[in-house]
Amino acid sequence: MTTATTTSAWRFFDVEVAAVRTLSPSFVRITFRGPDVDEMADHGADQRIKLVLPDGDGGYAHLPRHEEWYAAWRDLDDHHRNPLRTYTIRHLRPEAYEIDVDLVVHGPTGPAGRFAADCTPGSRAVLMGPNARFDGFHGGLEFTAPRRGVPTLLVGDETALPAVSRILECLPADTVGEAVLEVPLAEDFTDLVRPQGVHLTWLAREGCPHGERLDPAVRRAAGRLLGDPTASGAPLEDVDVDRDILWDVPSVPGETGDRLYAWMAGEAGVIKALRRHLVSERGVDRRSVAFMGYWRLGRAEA
User: Fold this and answer.
1) pTM here?
2) Which pLDDT does position 255 carry in this prediction?
3) The predicted structure's pLDDT at residue 53
4) Which residues form the FAD-binding FR-type domain (predicted)?
């Protein structure tokens, strides 16, 4: 039974898999359906949710559902602690009680990979998402549209593709900017809905190291938007991406009067280097750069 409250910003939603669709060699779209998915809030852009995966017994019998669920969840042993993974809402259809979530296919390794490989229509799952009955700020949203006229730079690897795809769909029609995306294979390229003034660059890694093609492509895109570097910017504190989470977003982008708003997400080491290029080498105001290390190379999925 789903536990719901009218006061919590986020809540659990019991769902089952309604459909599984292969989008490309590296991506699969899972459609979930549940009796109260119409009570999930969605603020567009990169609105994220949690996919609660089956525990070691293949179910959810030990998942805490009370207000202090997180502390109780952390206290569970590994076998009974349901893995949590963060994803972007791709489509929410409240009238049909359905939500689409796109997953990267890495093979049957790790809890998410096994779920993506094994789930079929009827498979049970649990989502945690914004509660539409809560009338305050939900959170879980990092993209904030910049002031009109400020160019937009969107950067991501395959883990950020669902978020970038949705952000592009939400941009005003007169937006000017660049979107640079690195994915495993050329077969993963797809046509994305976007404003006419946003140039889209696809990069196929094809076995190259992560970021090897993304880094220079983003530097070229920044050059097209900003012109030649004119001055160095503010120094940045060093973030140990092997120990700390690389994650910072501007609260009110565009009010700085800067020339660019950037949203970048993907492998933490790559994003760290690109942030340094924009802020320290090109002088972009750090308050105009949202950057998120979605994952870290070499760190195994728990």
Assistant:
1) 0.91
2) 58
3) 98
4) 10-137
